[in-house]
Specification:
The chain is an alpha/beta fold. The chain contains 5 helices and 7 strands, in the order βββαβαβαβαβα.
Length: 191
């Protein structure tokens, strides 16, 4: 491209320009740490904020969720659920404590097994998450092939089996809209 005599070529910021050696160069733009949807990507400095449904006690399923999350490499999260600190008071005080725990999170992991114990409180946790546009990842009952209760399934963004990879991918996808496309290699013999 020719310029008029006496004029200088000025490369606009962010656009490629011709280097004296003949190669095209482009200025480096620092990574903003955002994914295509404008959300910040997960990192150790910016962990996912999650809440796991509970009834103020740590059940086997509750602990199993954290075993799955901890066993995955490069998955950083902050747990906002506090089942070890029960609130003294009436039902409204319990609900207020749950609201405080759920409000700052990006995703709620709901345990289907708790619905049999106290359906009202589990349903309240899902309703509050739904009202605040927080995605709910519903875990099926561990070791049980029955589908989750219809009431729970209606408020879930996704229903997940007890699988480490499926759980982590669902949390990443629904909390931060991160692409979790992975490819599996299946080897088989043709007979």
């Amino acid at each position: 491209m020719r310029c008029r005599p006496g004029a200088r070529r000025v490369a606009r910021r962010g656009h490629p320009r011709l280097h004296p050696t003949g190669f095209v160069t482009a200025p480096l733009v620092p990574d903003s740490g955002r994914n295509p949807f404008g959300h910040f990507t997960m990192s150790q400095a910016n962990p996912l904020r999650i809440f796991v449904t509970h009834l103020w006690e740590t059940t086997d399923d509750y602990l199993r969720v954290f075993e799955y999350l901890e066993s995955h490499r490069n998955f950083f999260y902050r747990n906002y659920s506090t089942p070890d600190r029960p609130v003294v008071g009436d039902k409204e005080a319990l609900k207020e404590d749950l609201r405080r725990q759920i409000a700052p999170v990006e995703a709620v992991i709901a345990l289907s097994s708790l619905y049999d114990t106290n359906p009202d409180m589990v349903f309240f946790q899902l309703l509050y998450a739904d009202a605040n546009n927080i995605p709910v990842i519903l875990m099926k009952r561990f070791g049980d092939q029955r589908p989750p209760h219809k009431v729970l399934a209606e408020h879930a963004a996704v229903i997940v089996d007890w699988d480490e990879r499926a759980l982590v991918d669902a949390v990443r996808k629904h909390a931060r809209h991160e692409d979790t496309t992975r490819w599996d290699t299946i080897e088989f013999k043709l007979d």
